[in-house]
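Bug #77: duplicate submission created two jobs. Keeping one. Sequence:
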Amino acid sequence: MGVDLTVIWALIIVFGVMMYVVMDGFDLGIGILFPFVKDKEERDVMMNTVAPVWDGNETWLVLGGAGLFGAFPLAYSVVLSALYLPLIFMLMGLIFRGVAFEFRFKAKERSRHVWDKAFIGGSLVATYFQGVVLGAFIDGIPVVDHQFAGGSLDWFRPFPLFCGVALVVGYAQLGCTWLIMKTEGRLQQQMHDHARVLAWALLGMIGIISVWTPLSHPEIAQRWFRLPNLIFFLPVPVLVILGFFAVLREIARGATATPFLLTLMVVFLGYSGLGISLWPYIIPPSVTLWDAASAPESQGFSLVGALFILPFILGYSAWSYYVFRGKVKVGEGYH
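Kept job's structure:
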């Protein structure tokens, strides 16, 4: 039996997107939490917890987009045609946030608030429209004769818009638990308090989406409740609920690292549930991975480059997090 390059590429893209969600999620979450912290020095600490690593985190987003273009050009063209507006808004948010990140540390005191607002706005916009893109993708994209057959505002529906709000809550929880792990004193205690509220809010959001999705998409409901998928899917909601209560327990006892690690586990479980819901469609509800795949020769050629560069990205990421491990204190930082 030969190697299925289509499945290998699907796994690489799924892995890249997952790494982006995990690593840039808490980064964006810090910007979402910025309005709840008024002290200038504490805001500096918040940004310094991610200053050495934030730009490297977005490498995974580039990898996912480039992999989609090379291995699944049909999906790339259709998804961009269907979602170009929310994707443009997302990129604009990332640009504003990136510029604000650097200029804030160089700005004079009287103009610093401008860059704070740009950082907050960029983080919120980028996160919200990532959620909108995800919700619109789950909702399905009409394809006729290998072309997008819908309108430019098809994404402007209740489910995608709600998914945007849910992702804002999710990234805020990731950012909150990251700050619990990386800070101390009053800021850490404030994040402990926010994390309790956000954990319950995120559980509610996941519950609503978990009910809304099968009710509005019968094909997904069939995948969830049909054997053998049910066997694989059933542990996911159970583990998510147990994970949330574990997060709340660890927050209540004043733990530092475990709330973040458990939140990552919950995010991974939600991501796996999404995979089970959509497999094997790369453009729901009609285009499978193999329908959208490029020629085996193209996939094989691209795979050589991907397998060469992936260890460098992983090594750089691991090394940067290792070097800048530990707590960040007032007056200390990357800048």
